[in-house]
Structure to design on (404 residues):
C-alpha cells in the first residue's frame, strides 16, 4: 500500500529550540529512499506504508536516545485505490486550478 | 516501545454518513488486545507500537474493501521513556488537578 | 456555524509532566458553556465556532503565562450542513452499529 | 499573538477528487496578507492568530457553499513568546543543521 504521509514530530520535556531533534528525524528520513519534503509544520513523506511507519518509529527511538523523555508525533496517512498519485501531483493539480481563474 | 495513540480515520469519496466506516475500523481495533476508547473525533488506542500501526494499516485496507476510494488517517503517537503511563493515568492525573482548585 | 472540535494542546520547552498545563486549559474550557469531554490525547469540544476558537486562543495565552515558551495545538474542526449532530450522537451511532453484529 | 499554522481541510461526502475544494480554500488564503505555502498535506499559514482562524472559518463556509455536506479541518497552531520566528526561519534552521553533518 502506497501512502502520502505527513510526519510532524515534537520532543517534550526538552528546551524550546527543537530544531536539532527535527534535524535528527529528517536525517532518518533522508537515509531512506522515501520521497520527502520539509515544511514549517512537518515533513511530507511518500512511499510504501511499512517504510513510512518504520521511519516514524526510528525517529521516536532517535529522539529518545538524544534525551527527549517524551516524543509526540502527528502522522497523517493518505491512501487511495482509485488511481496513482504522488505528492507532487497533488500540489500541481491545485496550482493548475488556481491559475485557471 | 509502548505508545498511547489516537486514531482518527476518514473515508473520502463516499457518502457524508461515515459511521459504518468508523464502526468497521472500531471492530478491527476491538479484535486486538489493545486498550481503546472511542471519542467524538477518533479512538484512543494503547499498546505496543507495532500492533498500533498494524491496526491502522488494517483499517485502511478494510475501508478500501468497503468501497472508499480514499482514506485519510490522523494518527497521534505518544511515547515516553521517563516512566510508564497508561491512557487512564493521563486522564485521572488531569482530573485530580482540576479537583484541587 | 456549529462545530464538533478536538483540542490537543502541548507546551514545549517545559518539563515532561505537562498535566498542570493540560489542566489549566481544561479549566478554561470548563469555564465556558461549551460541551466538552477529556480523553487521553485531547478534549472534544462542541459549540459555536467562534467560541471554540476563542477558547483555544485563551488556552495558548494561559500556557504562555504559566511559563511555556512555546505552545502547539492540533485543533480538529468538523462542521456539517446536512443535519444537526452532537458529539454524543457521533459516538452512539458507532456504538449501535457495533452492537448489530 | 503571532502564529505559525498548518491548515489541512477535507470535504466529506463529495467525490474522491477534492482538489477543486482545496483550490477554493487556497484562494481564500491567498486573498489575505498571510504568508502561506501549499504542501501535499495542507498549507502552512503564518500571521496574526485572529486572521488565521478567520481564514479557516471562511474556508469551511466556502466548501459548504460548493456543496460539501461535511468539512473537516486539522489546524495546527504554534505560538512562542521566547523569540520571533517565521516559517522560513524554521525550515532554514533545520536545513543548516543538516548541512553541518
Amino acid at each position: 500500500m502506497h501512502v502520502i504521509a505527513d510526519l510532524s514530530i515534537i520532543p517534550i520535556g526538552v528546551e524550546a529550540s527543537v530544531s536539532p531533534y527535527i534535524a535528527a528525524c529528517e536525517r532518518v528520513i533522508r537515509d531512506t529512499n522515501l520521497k520527502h519534503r520539509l515544511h514549517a509544520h512537518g515533513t511530507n513523506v511518500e512511499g510504501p506504508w511499512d517504510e513510512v511507519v518504520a521511519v516514524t518509529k526510528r525517529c521516536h527511538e532517535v529522539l529518545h536516545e538524544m534525551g527527549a523523555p517524551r516524543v509526540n508525533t502527528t502522522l497523517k496517512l493518505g491512501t487511495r485505490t482509485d488511481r496513482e498519485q504522488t505528492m507532487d501531483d497533488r500540489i500541481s493539480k491545485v496550482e493548475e486550478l488556481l491559475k485557471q481563474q
Remarks:
- Chain C has one domain: 2-99.
- The beta strands of chain C are 2-12, 35-39, 42-48, 70-80.
